[in-house]
Amino acid sequence: MRLHRTPRAPNPRRVTMFIAEKSISGIEFVDVDLASQAHRDAGYLERSPFAKVPALELPDGRVLTESRAIQTWLEGRFPEPNLMGRDADERAFIEEADRQVELYLFLPLAMWVRHTHPGLAMLETPQLPDFAATQACRGREAAAIFDQRLADREWIAGERFTVADITGFCALEFARGLVRWRPVDDGLARLQAWRDRMAQRASAAAL
Fold it and tell me: Is residue 82, in this structure, part of any structural domain at all?
């Protein structure tokens, strides 16, 4: 298997952390330089027509190009430790939490970063400051909701670590690294404490 990725980009990091949590070996990592537009080369577009990272080449030659689909495939082949649910009920609630994190926290924070940071201007042409400001507000509003949820649970989806925690952590780290925002900046102490616990996991250093 071969994973095409950009190590510090948030979506590839979701997959890299997932692989690290499961201690999966035998995957070759191929770095794709977004700054040089390598994701738009003809060869890469054959694997990922939408010019996105990550892309996982499977043993039979097929390619998966969506982070959640890659995680689902890996979960099926490497079921332990379980990160996506052991039965229909648990899978549904974990998927709901993961989707809520992705749609309401991850995506707005990513758009805030991509439409603000000058180093990412080549990915967003043109960058839209007003849109960035709107997305910043939406992402921070979602962060407040997740902060409240953590009042009665240890992890995003409930009582154990799951894929939803990986998604949330990668979202916060992308914002922390490029727009210097942390949950504690908005008084979100529970979300900040959760982030700090996440940062102690070995997979958080897997790049």
Answer: no
Overall average pLDDT of the 146-175 stretch: 98
Three-class HEC string of 59-107: CCCCEECCHHHHHHHHHHHCCCCCCCCCCHHHHHHHHHHHHHHHHHHHH
pTM for the model: 0.96
Looking at the structure, tell me whether residues 105 and 60 fall in a common domain: no
State the CATH number of the domain containing residue 16.
3.40.30.10
Number of H helices, E strands in the chain: 8, 4
Q: How many domains does the chain have?
A: 2
Helix (H, G, I), strand (E, B) or coil at 155: strand
- Same domain? For 98 and 198 the reply is yes
Q: Structure tokens of 77?
A: 């082949």
Query: Same structural domain for residues 73 and 113?
Result: no
pLDDT tens-digit readout, 44-77: 999 999 999 999 999 999 999 999 999 999 999 9
